[in-house]
Amino acid sequence: MNMDDMVLISVDDHLIEPPNMFDRHTPAKFKGRMPHIVQGPQGEDMWMIGAMPVPNIALNAVAGRRPEEYGFEPTGFAQLRKGTYDVHARIGDMNVNGQLAGLNFPSFVGVGGQTLEKVQDRELGLAIVRAWNDWHIDEWCGAYPGRFIPVGIVSNWDPIAAAEEVRRIAKKGCYAISFPPNPSLSKLPSLHNPIWDPLWKACSDTGVVVCLHIADASNAVPSIESPVDVMIANMPVSLYATATDLTFSPILRKFPDIRFALSEGGVGWIPHFLERIDYVHERHTWTNQDFGGMKPSELFKKHVYTCFIDDKVGIKVRHDAGLSKMTWECDYPHSDSTWPKAPETLWPSIKDIPAAEIDMITHLNAMKAFQFDPFKHIKKEDCTVGALRAQAGDVDLSFTDTKGKGVPPAEHSGPVTFGDVTGQLSKMIDVGAKT
């Protein structure tokens, strides 16, 4: 196998919802009340959910920006690469990257739907959930069969309604939902609370994978004075705590067919984690954990998928980490993404392992996890890196004009801290609220 022979399916990409996404999906009862775009005084576009502003954060959509202009400042659609919010342009960006397919997480509703937890009118919140899912499944993913793995959101505040939504979208061919990795951070019941059982049962019954995507930045940074580099470095391994919480919760033992994915979590740390949870279980029998004769590591490997962007250590320890559950991600259009050179970034790490294992990591494991078969729609020979790039045509890779915006601002000196970026974002949200 050579680099151009790879078939790349990313289990973690993102989209920026377009302004017209609710046009075809608003129930008559909620006409005029669904989220809509407003423009701030500096040209930034923000979603408004009632009186709550939700800005487009630049660091969530920096594809096409100069690296020195990456930042957290809210932006307008005019400053974003079109492929972030236009599905037709996204296909061009995927082709030029040699990427066959991707699972696209939400943005303004929260990567796990957390933004909608703040909607006071619960009936409206549920209508937004359903409308988002219908738009994503029918319009975004439906526009190009075989190119997108659909993922839904649920009503995190109502497990019964969430279970019903899982069953509804599964009938539409959507076999993934995005859920907060630590719901207690939103003052919701923890993963250990049986209140979630209807949701877990629905996922187990339908084969819907629960994606626990890194979400809460404050959980990855020690202090407000920490350089923002600390947060960025720690975000993936913040899922270490989630993985432990999940494994020692009753969920994996109570629902033997349920599956989770640690989205954007990396792989290199997994063997240490598995060794540690087994050590704890063996040494600390006083905690009354009963795994029915299994090791915690065995339970984790049975139920949980992992993923990585570029993880040379993870490839080296792939068998210890669990090769059958390893998947690849591009993370377009975020700042960690390897677009448009994902094949060139990945290939040096995997070129010396067996071709069958490359196929497992790059696409077969993802296809199995999400019940996704692109080859029903596209000939396999047209799905490789080389074949897709040959279709890319004249995709423009020139830098986006961002008017020099980004972090740090011109007057800033020294390392950018977590406080700098949260302060900047808070200021813009205040402006949006007044707008």
TrEMBL record:
SUPFAM superfamilies: Metallo-dependent hydrolases (SSF51556)
Keyword Repressor found: no
Keyword set, alphabetical order: Lyase
Highest taxon, organism lineage: Bacteria
Gene3D superfamilies recorded: Metal-dependent hydrolases
Protein name in UniProt: Amidohydrolase family protein
Domain Amidohydrolase-related, first and last residues per copy: 120-372
Keyword Transcription regulation included in the entry's annotation: no
